[in-house]
Amino acid sequence: MTKTQTLEVRIRMYSDNGQGEFKAFSLPCEGEMNVLNALEYVHARLDPSVSYRSSCRRGVCGGCTMTIDGKILLACMTDLHDGIEIDPYTVE
Ligand code: FES
Predict the structure, then answer these.
(1) How many CB atoms lie within 10 A of CB 31?
(2) Residues with CB under 6 A from ligand 1
(3) pTM, rounded to two decimals
């Protein structure tokens, strides 16, 4: 039997004034989860205002590209860990 642990994810949320702030969410993690799984959980069960894009879920389309712990990565191919920081991918 796989043990369930609680992980905290920090997602940068933007308000109408354009100021982004990290908001922390706690979610159960059983076995291996990736960042896309975490975003789906948060959107479905904790905060429907969390939005993201995805399509293939296999690391092919690039639709889930975002900044994760300061690196530009694919959410569907990045393993989840406690305290992870998830940011939109922005081109400056
Ligand atoms: S959903 Fe296509 S690369 Fe992640």
Answers:
(1) 7
(2) 54-57, 59-64, 74, 76
(3) 0.91
Residue 92 pLDDT > 80: no
Cβ contact 65:85 at 8 Å: no
Query: How many domains in the chain?
Result: 1
Report the nearest atom of ligand 1 relative to the CA of 53. 1
Residue in 54, 68, 78, 89 to alter for ligand 1 test, most ligand atoms within 8 A of Cβ: 54
When pLDDT is cut at 50, 70 and 90, the band that residue 1 belongs to is low
In a domain, 24, yes or no: yes
What average pLDDT does this structure show over 17-30? 90
Average pLDDT, integer, range 55-73: 96
- Dist CA 75 CA 71 (whole Å): 11
**Which domain, by its residues, includes 12?**
4-87
Query: Residue 34 belongs to a domain with what CATH number?
Result: 3.10.20.30
- Would residue 92 count as lying in a domain? no
